[in-house]
Amino acid sequence: MSTLVVSNISDGTTTIDITSTSKGGAKAYIRADNGGSILDSYNISAVTINSNGNLYTCTFTNPMPNNQYLVVATVNTTELDGTVFVRNFTVNSFDVVV
Questions:
Q1: Residue 79 in 3-state DSSP?
Q2: Whole-structure pTM over 0.85, yes or no?
């Protein structure tokens, strides 16, 4: 039996760290402020806010393999009641409504 040990995988155009492909690890995470500025993230390239300021579209740097993934979202503020909805799961993005 052979073992292949690599730290990155490339398709010739894009190179990704193997942590984004291993099962059991987070495929993406984000910490953003209410203005949509990304404070810390992994595999999230952008946050876009709609005109009402209550819908945040989070865009992945590298797409998910399908739209059947889990998002856990919380809000840390005294200005809102803490209700957060996540919807519109695509391989490229998801929406968070506060």
A1: coil
A2: no
